[in-house]
Amino acid sequence: MRLLLLSDIHANLEALEACMDAAPEFDKIVNLGDVVGYNASPNEVCERVRAMGGMVVRGNHDRACAGLSDLSEFNLIAAMSARWTQTALAPEHIAWLRELQQGPLRMEALPGIEFVHGSPRGEDEYLLSAPTATLDFNASEHIDVVFFGHTHLQGGFTYNGGHPLYFTPQYEVGKGVLHCTMRLLARERYLINPGSVGQPRDNDWRAAFALYESDVGFPGTVTFYRVPYDVQAAQARVLAANLPERLATRLALGR
Ligand code: ZN
User: Which of 211, 190, 188, 209 is nearest to 198 (CA)?
Assistant: First the structure.
């Protein structure tokens, strides 16, 4: 089974299209949430994500933009973009967002793997530190690999009972689409973030996603990707929508 892992697309149509053009062959898509919020193409992105099928885990921005929670947890800019998204979204996409399931989600064909937005312990938890990772590894003892999003940072944690180790993919320097494969080890457990398609925050502006392959020897491999895309076009849409300028400038900075 080859799973295309997308997360935190955040209504960035140009980034999503570049990732789909760069994507290798896959059997199924798993989307780890935050389809909308921040950027200016929520309807176009919802349309494409719905057409792709596969599994979609709800993200905190999906929940807020669908009106399922208030915006009190959001900073000013996130709240402004969520309010804009609520008015921009077509009713059918709002209805679809409202039906998305909160993680953790699983797939029958892949026992031992879990899909979440924030972490196994919560949709809104940022999995950024080793102490938090320890709590999450302990909360999902029977799970070998958790795929998560929310932090917009490509990489994650490995664990074999000691101190969780943080890792990021190590790419060769180069132009065009880059990828980097990591073989998973049976004696380790993993928390893995494919990175953010539409608003990376690891100081790399290129759109991020990953491919998980289970049939290349247990427990499989994860290949991380970075994809250049038309940032200027995405920024122009943000500005044309009168969204906060910071949402446009951060795209080019990857922060
Ligand atoms: Zn997000």
Answer: 209
Rg (CA), the chain: 17
Could you tell me the two tokens for 230? 């038309």
Range of the domain at 181: 2-253
Strand, helix or coil for residue 122: strand
Q: Summarize the confidence of residues 94-116 as an average pLDDT.
A: 96
Q: Is 88 helix (H, G, I), strand (E, B) or coil?
A: helix
Using the mean position of ligand 1's atoms as its centre, give its distance from the Cα of residue 150 in Å. 5
DSSP 237-252: HHHHTT--HHHHHHHH
Distance from the alpha carbon of residue 56 to the mean position of ligand 1, in angstroms: 14
* pLDDT on residue 216: 78
Q: In which band, very low, low, confident or very high, does the pLDDT at 17 lie, cut at 50, 70 and 90?
A: very high
- d(CA 187, ligand 1 centre) in Å: 31
- How many domains does the structure of the chain reveal? 1
Q: Residue 48 belongs to a domain with what CATH number?
A: 3.60.21.10
